[in-house]
Amino acid sequence: AQSVTQLGSHVSVSEGALVLLRCNYSSSVPPYLFWYVQYPNQGLQLLLKYTTGATLVKGINGFEAEFKKSETSFHLTKPSAHMSDAAEYFCAVSVAKAAGNKLTFGGGTRVLVKP
Amino acid sequence: SAVISQKPSRDICQRGTSLTIQCQVDSQVTMMFWYRQQPGQSLTLIATANQGSEATYESGFVIDKFPISRPNLTFSTLTVSNMSPEDSSIYLCSVDWDRGTDTQYFGPGTRLTVL
After folding, report:
1. What count of other Cβ atoms lies within 10 Å of the Cβ of residue B8?
2. Disulfide: which of A34, A50, B30, B70 matches A67 by Cβ 3.0-4.6 Å?
3. Share of chain B above pLDDT 90, in %
4. Tens-digit pLDDT profile for residues A2-52
5. Where are the alpha helices (DSSP H) in chain B?
6. Are B3 and B62 in contact (CB under 8 A)?
7. Cα B46 to chain center, whole Å?
8. Is the pLDDT of residue A96 over 70?
9. Which residues of chain A are within 8 Å of residue B94 when distances are taken between CB atoms?
10. Mutate to test the interface with B, among A60, A102, A105, A110 (most CBs of B within 10 A)
11. What is the pLDDT confidence band of residue B111, given thresholds at 50, 70 and 90?
12. Which residues of A touch B48 (CB under 8 A)?
């Protein structure tokens, strides 16, 4: 069965510092991988996704993630944190099912940005 | 991407009552999903709703508790029946926008509090 592990339920970064959110997955087949962001009292917004091709994917708001098959990882980074990046971030992997593909989510990482 | 709306955005309900949550999409989509996000936790898939067929429920969720309708390609409802305080959660609908990549887009969520 597929699963997703996000290391660190809370991350605190200073404004302007590197943001690094870790995600490891397990999958018996090549996965599709996603990062979503959830701002307070809002739904989930797609940040970026990896399906095939280039392993370094760029998303919105300056975020990027790199798919590393050998490490079964899909870590999310942003070179310079902004106050508006304070939110909860979810990594997800696509799981193929007979009834249609579904997403399995990691536990989430809440990011606090300090001025 | 799809524009997804949910009604109500939030509600406070009494134990033993039922609440129906609506999800509207601005384009026709084949698959819609309903998720539950309990306080401080990640997302758990409740069921997948395809137009013209019965919803497919995940382990731990049953139709009597969470009946779902999918009358057309742009609309779905989820009912939370005979509510208890343990049902207090955010309920989110999503749509499978790009079948080739399993990308899902989410509505803003319905924040439910059961007293």
Report:
1. 12
2. A50
3. 81
4. 789 999 999 999 999 999 999 999 887 778 899 999 998 888 999 999 988
5. none
6. no
7. 7
8. no
9. 44
10. A102
11. very high
12. 99-100, 102
- Distance, in Å, from the CA atom of B106 to the CA atom of B115, rounded to the nearest integer, reads 27
Q: Which of A21, A42, A103, A109 to mutate to test the interface with B (most CBs of B within 10 A)?
A: A103
CA B101 from chain centre, in angstroms, equals 21
Question: Which amino acid is present at B92?
Answer: L
Q: Quote the tokens at residue B22.
A: 């609506």
- How far apart are alpha carbons B100 and B67 in whole angstroms? 28
How far, in Å, are A42, A51, B31, B103 from residue B98 at the CA level?
A: 22, 11, 10, 5
Identify the three-state secondary structure at position B47.
strand
pLDDT for the residue numbered A28? 73
Of the two residues A103 and B16, the one the predictor is more confident about is: B16
